[in-house]
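Weekly structure sync, notes
Attendees: PL (lead), two postdocs, one rotation student
Agenda item 3: pending single-chain targets
PL asked that the sequence for the first pending target be pasted directly into the notes so everyone works from the same version. It is reproduced below exactly as submitted, 174 residues in total.
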Amino acid sequence: MATVSAAFVVVSSGCGMVGSAASAERLQLEPLSVSSPTLRDGGPLPSDYSCRGSVGNPPLRWSRVPEDAKSVAIVADNDNAQAGAEVHWVVFDINPRTNELAESTLPPGAVEGSTTNGKVGYAPPCLPQENYRFTVYALNGKVELAKGAPLSETLKSIADKTIAWGRLTATHIE
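Predicted structure, written out during the meeting:
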């Protein structure tokens, strides 16, 4: 559990690449721009994308991926002060030329890892007053893990390969 927590902190903070040989360089990177046609940064997560809905993951768009990126990853999470951090979705090995993810779909070749609850795929959030973060990472290589790979391994690989990142945050579930 400590490994999951440590890797989660590194990945979810986006800027917490402490301990990495290139941490100073990574902290200086321009962030990716992340948006959604159905979410506004700082606004609510529509209930369709929560455990009360049936849609699945929200659509996301991103831009400013560095030319040297070899893949893209997405982590959807929240940091519940009482229950601890939860990862609701991990998608990796997305083609770096891809710049959007449609509602309830995966781009060709993308792979989903395990979430905090051990399931593969989008685990819709349920806590109405939490902040839900959708973070897009540009990576300098592929994660190269199998579908359903353990969360700790996936988050560590994403953290080790991150060269740029951006985030869209929903402040609660509507």
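Discussion points:
- The CA atoms of residues 29 and 164 lie 6 Å apart.
- Helices lie at 2-13, 23-27, 151-161.
Action: rotation student to compare against the earlier draft before next sync.
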